[in-house]
Amino acid sequence: APRGDLTRTRTTCGYCGVGCALEVLTRDEQVTAVLPCHDGPVNRGHACVKGRFAHGFVRSPDRLTRPLVRRRGRLEPVSWAEALEFAAHGLRAAVAAGGPDAVAAISSARATNEENYLVQKFMRVVIGTNNVDNCSRLCHSPSAAGLTASFGLPGGTDVFDEAELADCLLVVGANPAEAHPVVGARLLQRTLRGARLIVADPRTVGLAGYADVHLRPRPGTNVALFHGLAHVLLAEGLVDEDFLRRRAAGLPELTALLAGYPPDRVAAITGVPAGDLVAAARLYGRAERPAIFYGLGVTEHLHGTDGVRALANLAILRGAAGTGRGYGLSPLRGQNNVQGASDMGALPDVLPGYQPVADAAARERAARAWGAPVPERPGLRIPEMFAAARSGTLRALWVIGEDVCATDPDADRVAAALTACPLVLCNELFLSDTARRADVVFPVASWLEKDGTFVNFDRRFQRVRPALPPPGEAVTDFAVVHALAAALGADLGCRTPADALAECGRVVPMFAGLSHERLDREGAVPWPCPDPGAPGEAALYRERFATPDGRARLASVPYLPPGEEPDDRYPLVLVTGRRWAHYNSGSMTRRGGNLRLDGVDLLDLNPGDAARYGVRDGEPVAVESRHGRAELTARLTGQMAPGQVFCAFHFPSSGVNTLTSGHADTVTSCPEYKVTAVRLIPG
Ligand code: SF4
């Protein structure tokens, strides 16, 4: 734009998975304001403090503007040609020493769909391995596994607008008032207009103050809680028998299992009074149109996939999915594009569109589109990549847009993995903890500087458009993948993001109806969308579930305890999560005004526990687990139940993720961030 002119760019927020449509105002390559769009499909004129105000990072002097290469132990600025040649040489050496499976990539929920598509294609076609994963591994991988097992597809059963019609909201293991504020506001609005509200969360999260019933299960006991609710639904005849007969499978087995979860026993396991459990089950069971929303409090557990399936049981028992008589259930996705990164096949066991790599027909379809064979053996998951690096079998790791050293659990072991790996490549905005350990750092564009699409928590594709050019020599992740392929003598085709989405539609029938041109015209389109002339499917499963026999699957999974329990040495349970002003490691939100809203990582604890352990409000406190130690500032609050403490991980210097354990979901390897036994040492 000519100097001094104001430019308006419509794009999609790059923070949380709500996917707010935003208008970014710029002048002379500076953001002057970010405004929520009134026709945004979820936000409808609203945005939170992150989307509106946390944009100062784009012109931060800390931004990386030149590629860096490690020489004589130090990262030095080099040209793009030198950086790419260094990386290509290292990748060739890794493959020569250990074969294609000696290389792995961690793709990113912060990258666009088109970038994720290109990364997985690079790994499968250029390197020849399925060793590609993304950070959904660390948050909602149990949702993908659990929802697929229960219903057939790895997304929420309906789009969010249906929640406007819900007469009972069950919000579980989520704090949308802080982590998904626009959804939190709409759920509150629905409650104030008459919907009944049940909140199930150990903490008194924002919505809990408006709840008809607040269930506070001990962290790690969700499966027992959900079975207790299901027990009451069955015992009191609050199930849809016709639906169960026609469209569900597994009722006899579940009925037998639930006999072992009467309210009194569930109360003993979870700490939730039996009366509250029964009251919640009756509210949910008697509603005409119940809806379930859940967050990482359900998934980030040793038995996270079982938790998703046990929660899905409730919707199936009520006939609230696939019938239009309710909302089913919806995972509140954490990162902006965590759904899309997985949809695009940045996963070790599935190709784009969740087509299993073990399926010869799916490999053949992709191979035809890509003009190259697709490797058959499923690749490594993120924790397995780190283990392989520590053991010496992984010789090159490409980390794209994730500060794994700050955000992955048991952080000291992650750092050891990067130190042990002979070649670490890193795409980053800033010199993060991970970038500091890399051998090559590629400076890349942020979400305000790139072109493509994101998929939000309720499966809607929306356009992402550049409001600014990236600083210095930074380029998009899309351009880096192409350039590295070229340095290895390969051509990935699909020159533009629009080409990449079009090619993805040729590989995945359920994305065939999507294109940039269509999204520019229509704004947001949900998947599945096989036909360019028809709307995507907002509400799934109206005819049949996407399981082999078309029936929803009730899950008979027993309650099993979490990986860690408190004991005399570590008497408290730590739960980690997010706060309203910041986002994950805080690399973007800490570089601007949001820092004034929230300036340090706080440890929330109950006043009774504070008195017991000699901790004072506002004073330093050390937290120790069996895995590490963090230094925080204490905040005494009645929001916390006795015996539990809570903190975020927005300030890596506090070391919160040195505390968290290596325990992970037995199905998907999602870390158990929500249950760590700790002790406190007053500062
Ligand atoms: Fe919307 Fe989430 Fe962005 Fe806030 S962070 S503006 S709720 S998408």
From TrEMBL:
Keyword 4Fe-4S attributed: yes
Shown segment, full-protein numbering: 211 to 893 of 893
Protein name, entry field: Formate dehydrogenase subunit alpha
Residues of the 4Fe-4S Mo/W bis-MGD-type domain: 6-62
Keywords on record: 4Fe-4S, Iron, Iron-sulfur, Metal-binding, Repeat
Highest taxon of source: Bacteria
Family statement drawn from the similarity comment of this UniProt entry: In the C-terminal section; belongs to the prokaryotic molybdopterin-containing oxidoreductase family.
Record GO biological process: formate metabolic process; respiratory electron transport chain
Residues annotated as transmembrane: none
GO cellular component: membrane
One of the record's GO molecular function terms: metal ion binding
